[in-house]
Write a structure and sequence with these properties.
Strand content: 25-35%
Largest sheet: 9 strands, antiparallel
Number of strands: 28
CATH topology of the domain at 33-210 and 305-367: Beta-galactosidase, Chain A, domain 5
CATH class of the domain at 33-210 and 305-367: Mainly Beta
Structural class: mainly beta
Order of helices and strands: HEEEEEEEEEEEEEEEEEEEEEEEEEEEE
CATH architecture of the domain at 33-210 and 305-367: Distorted Sandwich
Strand order of the largest sheet: 10-11-12-13-28-22-21-16-19
């Protein structure tokens, strides 16, 4: 009788993992991992259902020459072994949770630690390491789009409650919109979804981004301790290497940040400077001088993680090109890191009555803004 009971338990666990998409990397079915293409004018976007990952974005430079501005791999299956989160949808809670634990409504939750004692980007198998379902796919036309969905089960990586998640990529005229949504089905739970694309506006294989010019519309940042966990305080960017209120060349002050070997910090985004049509606040603008490409990011998120690919090393990417530290910029609009342990930070708790919606709007051009014209 005991053997039969154990067998039934194992069958139940296996079935639960299958229906919820909770395969680990050894159990995944490579045949289900696909590549999808969206095309609009001069823009071509490729994504994969593994991790709802942005694989490439091809667009022209100032001379009309096409180039791919996203770091990544040649095949979608290669992303199953990725450790840098290239282009991935990261969750259930992106960035770091200190001590891999939190308390919500009087219940203490212990998470899976995967960076020392902390949880990073959802744990050992976050949303970047699962197979997503394709809900809708329109390759071309007036509004090319693809919509992925994932059911995160109660207790996955230690997080409470079942969660229905969707991610949509939508191409517009010289623009890419990414919409990340989540609905708690039975229990309140923290949610912070991030797109972890690595951008190099000169082309993915053009080397480092130290000459790119960046402007970030954040007057404050959340300082971190030795484990890269926010202290809970807010600091002004004035007089620090984090000051990008006016456009700055990335490489000018990057070596003043030895603790993180470059930029890896969360900005508190200013409330002003809205995109008139979309109602989103402008978070950052990036310009590459050689290619002439300009990217403007707008969002409804309160924060922005600026990361200069400090820990990418000898990573063999597209066409055999080997990526090294500072070979790209990550501009991750987000909730503040470790928000669930800091009552003064904007809440990340999602309930049945309060769903989650995170919007990123990326606009591309070769029209240099006036503030950047001196470079």
């Amino acid at each position: 009788m005991t053997k039969i009971f154990m067998l039934l338990c194992l069958l139940f666990l296996a079935f639960s993992g299958f229906v919820n998409g909770s395969m680990n990397k050894k159990e995944k079915n490579h045949d289900d991992i696909k590549l999808f293409e969206l095309k609009k004018g001069d823009l071509t976007l490729k994504v994969t259902n593994w991790g709802a990952t942005l694989v490439s974005l091809v667009l022209p430079d100032k001379n009309g020459k096409l180039g791919d501005i996203v770091l990544g791999y040649d095949t979608p299956k290669a992303y199953t072994n990725d450790t840098s989160y290239f282009g991935a949808t990261v969750g259930r809670v992106a960035n770091r949770i200190g001590g891999a634990q939190f308390t919500l409504n009087g219940t203490h939750y212990k998470l899976i630690a995967n960076e020392g004692n902390n949880t990073l980007h959802g744990g050992t198998r976050g949303f970047s390491d699962v197979l997503w379902k394709v809900e809708r796919y329109v390759r071309e036309g007036d509004q090319p789009l693809i919509k992925f969905s994932y059911h995160s089960f109660d207790g996955e990586q230690g997080f409470p409650g079942d969660l229905k998640v969707t991610v949509s990529y939508i191409l517009g005229k010289n623009s890419l919109t990414i919409i990340m949504q989540a609905k708690a089905l039975n229990k309140p739970t923290p949610v912070n979804l991030v797109n972890h694309a690595y951008w190099n506006l000169g082309n993915h294989n053009s080397g480092n981004i130290l000459d790119e010019v960046v402007q970030i519309f954040g007057s404050k940042f959340t300082p971190i301790d030795k484990n890269l966990i926010p202290t809970g305080k807010f600091s002004s960017v004035k007089g620090t290497p984090y000051d990008f209120l006016k456009p700055q060349i990335v490489g000018t002050r990057i070596n003043q940040l030895p603790k993180t070997n470059g930029y890896d910090i969360n900005y508190v985004l200013n409330k002003g400077k809205l995109e008139k049509k979309e109602g989103l606040k402008v978070a950052a603008i990036v310009m590459d001088k050689k290619s002439g490409r300009v990217m403007k990011l707008s969002t409804n998120a309160p924060g922005l993680q600026f990361y200069s690919a400090n820990f990418v090393k000898n990573d063999k990417g597209k066409g055999g090109f080997v990526y090294q530290p500072r070979s790209a910029l990550c501009l991750e609009s987000q909730a503040f890191p470790d928000s669930v342990n800091h009552p003064k930070f904007p809440s990340t708790i999602v309930t049945k009555e309060k769903p989650y919606k995170h919007v990123m709007l990326l606009k591309f051009s070769t029209n240099v803004p006036h503030a950047f014209s001196q470079f």
